[in-house]
Design goal:
heterotrimer, A: mainly alpha, ABC transporter involved in vitamin B12 uptake, BtuC, B: alpha/beta, Rossmann fold, two-stranded parallel sheet, 15 helices
C-alpha cells in the first residue's frame, strides 16, 4: 500500500507543476482566444531572467538594463495609481511619460550605486516580472494588434513565431548554460508515516513547496478576477469581446494585462521548474506537458487546468509505474494524451470547458 | 505596399549570397568541419566539448605553426543534437577546404548512425571517440568508423567488472536508466548477456528525450531497490537523474554513469545531492597537464582561447583529446603521403595506422591524460580502458585504477554483429590478415 | 500586361475545368517542370541536392498530405510525424520481409499502411474539433513514436533500435547519385501534387471543403461527415506515409524514431500555415520557406564573412526566423500562396495600373 500512495502523491504533486504551465495557457485563451504556444518559451525566459539577475556573471549593462525595466514598471504603476486616485490632479500623457522615464533613471541610479551584481531574490523577482510585463507590451503592440480579428490558427502560428524569437532572444542575452536558482527552496526528501509503512512514504519538500505556491497563485488569481475592477473587465472580455468593447473596456490594454499576468504565471512556473531542474533550455519543453492537461480540463477553465493537471499527473505516474514495466516503459508521454483523448470522446470540450454550441 | 516590402526583402535575401563570396580557404590549409551544439537542450554539454576541440586546433596552429606546417581551419556548424540538422551540416561541410573534410566528429550517436551510411560513399572517416555504434570497432566491415578509446559495449563490460569486484553479483539487481535513443540502447545486449553469466537480474528503464521527466522512473527504483543503478544519459537527463535519485534517497554511491554521464554539468546542478556519484572516466579532469599550460599560455593569455572557465573540465578535456587524435592521425597520414593537407581517404589511413605510445603522449603534453592507443585494420577501437571517478562535491576523484574491457568476450560479439550488418548491407569485409595498402 | 486573360474564351466545359485554365499558367508550369527535371540536375551541386532539394521535395509531399487534412478538410492535426514514421517503418519491414517487391510498390503499400493508421486515429475527429482535435492527434504522435522504439519486431530486433534502409533499386536500376535520388523524389512529388490537385477539384474535395466551412451545414445538404473526414485522414496519411518512407529511404538512409518526433509534426504544420491553407502551391512555398530559410540564415554570416560565434548565429537564426514568421503572417495571414495570387492580380494590370 505504501508504494501505491507514494506514486499517487508523487503524481499529484507533479500534476501541480503541469497545472502551473497550463494556467498561463488558459488565461490567454480565455481573454483573447489565442492558443499561446509561446507559453513554454515564456517560462524559460522568465526563469532565465531571474536566475541570471541573481547571479553575478553578467555584464553591468544587463543589470542596469533590468534595473531600468524595473523602474519603468514601478513608474507605470505610480502613474496608473495616480490617475485612479486623483483624477483631477492626474498628469497629462507627456508628464506621465516623464514620470515613468524618471523612475527608470532612478532604477538605474539605485542599481549603479548599490553594487550592481548578483541581486537578491526580492529585487530579482519583481525585476523579472517587470521584464515579462515589457515583453507582454511588445507582443501586444508588434504581433497581436496587427493580427486582430484573424482566425485562431493564424494567431496560433504567430505565437509559434514568438516562441522561436523568445528562445533565441533569451539565450542571446542570458546565455545557454545550466543555471541554479539560489532561492533557498528546500529539496531534500521527507518520509511520512514511517511507523505504518515499511520505509515510510516519500514526499519531496520541493513538491510540497510547489503545491503551496500553486495554491497561493490560484487564490491570488481568483481574487484578482473576482474582486478587482481589472479582473471584472478581463472576465467581461472573455465572455464577449464586442459587448465588452461597447461598454468601454479597452481591448488593447486588457490584452497587455492578460499577457502580463500570463508572464507572471510563467515566472512562478519558471521558479518552481527551475528549482527542480535547474534553469536551462529544456524548461521550454514543459509546454508539451501542459497540452493534455488543457484538453482534459478545457481550454477556458482555470479550475479545469488545476484539476486536469492533478488527474494527468496522477494518471501518468500510475501508468508508468504499474503498466510501464510490462509494456517496456516510457509510456507516460502518450498515456497522458490517451487519457485526455478518452475523456474528450465523452466531453468534446473537456471536463470544465464551455459547452460548444453550434448553429447554422 | 506590403507586396513591395516583401519583394524587396526577398530580393535582398537573394542578392546577399551573390554579393559576398565564400571565404575560400587558402591552399595548404587543413579543413576541419566541426559539428557542434552550442544551443538548445544539450548545449551545457556540447559547449565545453566544442571549445576543447577549437582550443587544441588553435594551439597546434599557434604553438607549432600547424601540423608539419599545415595549419588548421575550423568551421563550426550548429546542429542542436538533431539528427536531420546534423546530416545537413555534414553535407554542407564535407566538400569545403582544399581537400574536403578530412574527418567528421559528430558527437551524437544518432548522427553517427546516419553518417555510417554516407561516409563510405564520400570517403570521409568518422571519428566517434567513446560513442557511436559498438560493432563498428570491427574495422574489417566498418572501414570508415573509428570508435577510438572505447565503445559502449566496452563501457558496459568495464562497469560490470568493477561492481563484480565489490562482491559477487549473484542474486543482485542492476537497473539501467537510459536515454531512449540508439545511444542509450547500445549497452543493453552486453548487460543482458552478463546477467546470465554473473547471475544478477537486469532491468532497463527508458527515459524519453530530453529527459526532464523522471519521477516515475525513480519511484520504480525506490520500490525495486536495485543494488546498482547504471546511468546512460546525456545532457539535462544526467543532472535530472541525480536530482531525482537524491529526491528518493537512492544512495548516489551505488550509481554509475557512463563517461557521457560524468562531467561537471551533470553533477553541479544537483549541488550536494551529487556527492558520491560515480562515473566512468576515459581521462581525468583538471588543468595540471602540460597541454593545459600551453593552452593557457598560447591562447587564453593572448585572448585567443574559447571560454576560460571550460578549460580543464571533463568534456573540455575530451574535446582536447578528440582533436589531438585528429591531429595525430593527420600527422601519421602525412608520414606516408607527404606534408600537405590530407584528404578523407588519406586521413583514414592515418587513423588505421595510428600508434600513440606512452612516450609520444608525453611529448604531446598529455601524459596522464590519455592512455596509449594502437589502432589496426581489425581493431578500430584502439584502446578499451577506463577508470571510475567519483564526485566528492567539488571535483572528480579517481577511485580505481584502469580497468580493461574483456576482449575475449566482446570481440566475438562485435564480429557477429558486424557480420550481420555486412550481410544486411551486402558489404564484403576486408581481409585484415593481409597487409593493407 | 504579361498576364492578361482578355481574349481567352473558353468554348467547352473541358477547357473551363482544366487544371490550369489560363495558357500563361500552362506555359509557366511547363517551364518550371523543365527547369526542375532538366535544368536543376545539370547545374545543382551535391550539397544542394542532398541537404536542400531532396528534403524540400519530400517535405513538400508531406505538406500536401497535411494540407488536404488541415487546409481542405479543416481538421487540425499534429500527428504528422507519427504518420510519417508509420510509412517509413512499414516500408522498411516490407522491403526487409518481402525483398522481391518492387520498391515503388513498397512505397505505395507503406502509404496504404499509413492511411489505415491515419483513418483509425481520425475517428476522434468525428466528435472533437479545433484545437482539442489538434492536441488529441498528439496522442497518435507520441503513441506511434513510442511503439516504434519499443516493439522490437518493427526494427527487426536491432539492439540499437536504429534501422538502415536497403539500397534504392527500382526495376533493376540503382539510384545512387544525388541527382538520381532527386529525380526519383521529384517524380513522386509531381504525381502526388497532380493527384492532390485533381482530388480537391472533384466531388470528394468539395465535400471536404464543405465540412471545413461548416460541418453541420454540410451534413444537412447531404455530405456524410464520417466519410468525408475519414477519407481526408486516409488520403492525407497516405501521402504523408509515402513521404515518410522517402525520408527514411532516400534522405536519411538510417533512422530512429526520433527522426519523426513532434518537431517534425510542428514543422509540417508551419509549412502548411505559412504556405497557405487550402493551396497546393502553398505547400511548396511553405516547405521551401521552412526548410531553406533557417539553413540560409545559418550560413549568411559565413557567406558575408562576418565573424560571429556559432552560438550567436544559431540564436540569431531563431530570432530572425521567428520574426519572419510573424512578419509574413501580418503581411498576409493567408500565406505565401495568397501573396502569390495577389502578385498575379497585379501582373494583370502591370505596367499600366490605371
Amino acid at each position: 500500500m505504501g508504494p501505491f500512495i507514494e506514486v499517487v502523491l508523487g503524481g499529484l504533486l507533479a500534476g501541480v507543476l503541469y497545472s502551473l504551465v497550463a494556467l498561463g495557457f488558459v488565461l490567454i485563451f480565455k481573454a483573447s482566444g489565442v492558443f499561446n504556444f509561446a507559453q513554454g518559451a515564456m517560462v524559460l525566459f522568465a526563469a532565465l531572467s531571474l536566475a541570471r539577475l541573481m547571479s553575478d556573471e553578467l555584464t553591468v549593462a544587463h543589470y542596469l538594463g533590468a534595473a531600468a525595466v524595473l523602474g519603468l514598471a514601478v513608474g507605470y504603476g505610480v502613474v496608473a495609481a495616480w490617475r485612479r486616485l486623483g483624477p483631477a490632479s492626474a498628469p497629462g500623457p507627456r508628464v506621465g511619460w516623464g514620470v515613468i522615464a524618471a523612475f527608470a533613471l532612478i532604477g538605474v541610479a539605485v542599481a549603479a550605486s548599490f553594487g550592481v551584481r548578483g541581486w537578491p531574490g526580492w529585487v530579482a523577482i519583481p525585476a523579472a516580472a517587470a521584464i515579462m510585463g515589457l515583453l507582454a507590451v511588445a507582443i501586444e503592440r508588434l504581433v497581436l494588434r496587427p493580427l486582430v480579428n484573424q482566425e485562431p490558427i493564424i494567431l496560433f502560428m504567430a505565437t509559434i513565431g514568438i516562441a522561436f524569437f523568445i528562445d533565441g532572444f533569451g539565450q542571446t542575452i542570458w546565455g545557454s548554460g545550466i543555471y541554479n536558482l539560489p532561492l533557498g527552496i528546500p529539496k531534500d526528501p521527507m518520509f511520512l508515516l514511517e511507523s505504518v509503512f515499511d520505509g515510510g512514504i516519500l514526499v519531496n519538500k520541493l513538491d510540497i513547496f510547489a503545491a503551496a505556491i500553486a495554491g497561493v497563485l490560484v487564490a491570488v488569481l481568483a481574487v484578482f478576477f473576482q474582486k478587482t475592477r481589472i479582473g471584472r473587465a478581463l472576465r467581461a472580455v472573455a465572455d464577449d469581446h464586442q459587448a465588452a468593447q461597447s461598454v468601454g473596456i479597452p481591448l488593447n490594454q486588457i490584452w497587455i494585462i492578460v499577457w502580463t499576468v500570463a508572464g507572471f504565471v510563467a515566472l512562478v512556473a519558471g521558479i518552481v521548474w527551475g528549482s527542480a531542474l535547474g534553469v536551462q533550455f529544456s524548461i521550454a519543453l514543459v509546454a508539451l506537458k501542459a497540452l493534455p492537461v488543457l484538453i482534459l480540463g478545457g481550454f477556458t477553465s482555470v479550475p479545469g487546468a488545476i484539476i486536469g493537471g492533478l488527474i494527468i499527473g496522477m494518471g501518468e505516474k500510475l501508468a508508468e509505474v504499474y503498466l510501464g514495466p510490462t509494456l517496456g516503459g516510457g509510456i507516460e508521454n502518450w498515456f497522458a494524451y490517451m487519457l485526455a483523448l478518452v475523456v474528450l470522446l465523452f466531453r468534446p470540450q473537456g471536463l470544465f470547458g464551455e459547452r460548444i454550441i453550434e448553429r447554422i | 505596399m506590403k507586396l513591395k516590402a516583401i519583394f524587396a526583402l526577398a530580393a535582398a535575401a537573394l542578392a546577399l549570397p551573390v554579393a559576398g563570396a565564400d571565404p575560400a580557404l587558402a591552399q595548404g590549409e587543413q579543413f576541419y568541419p566541426a559539428l557542434v551544439y552550442r544551443t538548445g537542450a544539450y548545449a551545457p554539454n556540447g559547449i565545453p566539448f566544442a571549445n576543447g576541440i577549437a582550443d587544441y586546433l588553435a594551439l597546434v596552429n599557434e604553438r607549432d605553426g600547424g601540423v608539419n606546417g599545415v595549419k588548421f581551419v575550423i568551421e563550426e556548424c550548429e546542429f542542436g543534437y538533431a539528427t536531420d540538422k546534423g546530416v545537413e551540416c555534414y553535407e554542407r561541410l564535407k566538400g569545403k577546404g582544399s581537400t574536403g573534410a578530412a574527418v567528421i566528429t559528430p558527437l551524437s550517436t544518432g548522427v553517427t548512425f546516419a553518417l555510417t551510411e554516407k561516409a563510405p560513399i564520400d570517403k570521409i572517416p568518422l571519428l566517434t571517440m567513446g560513442y557511436g555504434r559498438s560493432e563498428s570497432a570491427d574495422g574489417s566491415v566498418f572501414t570508415w568508423n573509428f570508435p577510438l578509446l572505447g565503445t559502449y559495449w566496452s563501457a558496459a563490460d568495464i562497469l560490470i567488472q568493477h561492481v563484480a569486484k565489490k562482491g559477487s553479483l549473484k542474486g543482485k539487481k542492476i537497473v539501467l536508466v537510459y536515454h531512449d535513443s540508439p545511444y542509450g540502447k547500445e549497452p543493453i545486449p552486453v548487460l543482458q548477456d552478463h546477467a546470465k553469466t554473473y547471475g544478477y537480474t537486469f532491468e532497463a528503464i527508458p527515459v524519453t528525450s530530453p529527459g526532464v521527466e523522471q519521477k516515475a522512473v525513480w519511484l520504480q527504483i525506490r520500490q525495486g531497490r536495485p543494488d546498482y543503478v547504471f546511468l546512460w544519459g546525456w545532457g539535462v537527463m544526467n543532472s535530472t537523474s541525480i536530482k531525482e535519485a537524491a529526491a528518493v534517497n537512492y544512495p548516489r554511491d551505488k550509481m554509475y554513469g557512463v563517461w557521457w554521464s560524468g562531467a561537471e554539468p551533470d553533477v553541479l546542478p544537483a549541488g550536494d545531492g551529487s556527492k558520491g556519484y560515480n562515473a566512468l572516466a576515459l581521462h581525468p579532469a583538471g588543468t595540471v597537464y602540460e597541454v593545459h599550460k600551453d593552452v593557457l599560455k598560447y591562447l587564453h593569455e593572448r585572448g585567443k582561447g574559447a571560454r576560460r572557465e571550460d578549460v580543464g573540465s571533463v568534456l573540455y578535456n575530451r574535446g582536447l583529446i578528440n582533436a589531438m587524435l585528429v591531429v595525430e592521425a593527420i600527422r601519421t597520414a602525412q608520414g606516408k603521403f607527404g606534408n600537405k593537407p590530407m584528404t578523407g581517404e588519406q586521413t583514414r589511413w592515418g587513423f588505421e595506422n595510428l600508434n600513440l605510445t606512452a612516450a609520444r603522449i608525453k611529448d604531446l603534453g598529455m601524459d596522464g591524460l590519455v592512455s596509449p592507443i594502437k589502432v589496426s585494420c581489425a581493431d578500430h577501437e584502439g584502446a578499451r580502458k577506463a577508470r571510475i571517478h567519483q564526485w566528492d562535491g567539488k571535483q572528480w576523484v579517481y577511485t580505481t585504477e584502469w580497468i580493461e574491457a574483456d576482449t575475449k568476450y566482446l570481440r566475438p560479439k562485435m564480429e557477429a554483429a558486424a557480420k550481420a550488418y555486412a550481410e544486411e548491407k551486402k558489404i564484403t569485409p576486408r581481409d585484415c590478415s593481409k597487409p593493407q595498402s | 500586361m504579361i498576364y492578361r486573360e482578355a481574349g481567352q474564351f473558353k468554348t467547352t466545359y473541358r477547357a473551363d475545368q482544366a487544371v490550369f485554365p489560363i495558357p500563361q499558367d500552362r506555359v509557366a508550369m511547363v517551364l518550371i517542370l523543365l527547369a526542375a527535371y532538366v535544368g536543376i540536375p545539370l547545374f545543382a551541386s551535391e550539397y544542394l541536392f542532398l541537404a536542400i532539394l531532396i528534403p524540400f521535395l519530400i517535405l513538400s509531399m508531406a505538406a500536401i498530405g497535411l494540407n488536404i487534412l488541415v487546409g481542405y478538410c479543416g481538421q487540425l492535426s499534429l500527428g504528422t510525424g507519427g504518420f510519417m514514421a508509420v510509412g517509413a517503418y512499414a516500408a522498411y519491414n516490407l522491403a526487409l520481409r518481402v525483398p522481391e517487391l518492387n520498391l515503388l510498390v513498397v512505397f505505395l503499400l507503406a502509404g496504404g499502411c499509413a492511411a489505415l493508421v491515419g483513418g483509425v486515429f481520425g475517428i476522434p475527429s468525428l466528435r472533437i474539433k479545433g484545437f482539442y482535435l489538434a492536441v488529441a492527434t498528439l496522442a497518435a504522435q507520441f503513441f506511434l513514436e513510442w511503439m516504434f522504439s519499443r516493439v522490437g519486431w518493427f526494427t527487426n530486433y536491432t539492439p540499437s533500435g536504429s534501422v538502415a534502409a536497403p539500397r534504392l533499386i527500382i526495376f533493376g536500376y540503382v539510384f545512387r547519385t544525388p541527382a538520381e535520388k532527386y529525380l526519383l523524389c521529384l517524380f513522386l512529388v509531381t504525381i502526388a501534387a497532380l493527384a492532390a490537385k485533381n482530388l480537391v477539384r472533384g466531388r470528394i474535395g468539395r465535400s471536404w471543403m464543405a465540412i471545413r466551412d461548416m460541418d453541420i451545414a454540410a451534413e444537412i445538404i447531404g455530405i456524410r461527415p464520417v466519410q468525408a473526414k475519414l477519407s481526408a485522414f486516409a488520403v492525407s496519411s497516405f501521402m504523408i506515409g509515402i513521404s515518410g518512407a522517402l525520408w527514411g529511404f532516400v534522405h536519411l538512409g538510417s533512422w530512429e524514431p526520433l527522426a519523426f518526433d513532434i518537431n517534425r509534426s510542428f514543422n509540417l504544420l508551419f509549412m502548411v500555415i505559412i504556405g497557405g491553407l487550402g493551396s497546393i502551391l502553398g505547400c511548396f512555398l511553405g516547405a521551401a520557406f521552412i526548410t531553406m530559410v533557417p539553413v540560409f540564415l545559418n550560413q549568411l554570416p559565413t557567406i558575408l564573412g562576418i565573424p560571429i560565434s556559432t552560438a550567436m548565429i544559431s540564436h540569431l537564426e531563431f530570432m530572425i526566423f521567428g520574426a519572419l514568421i510573424v512578419f509574413f503572417l501580418i503581411a498576409e495571414p493567408h500565406g505565401l500562396a495568397r501573396l502569390w495570387a495577389v502578385g498575379k492580380q497585379k501582373l494583370r494590370l502591370w505596367p499600366f495600373p490605371h
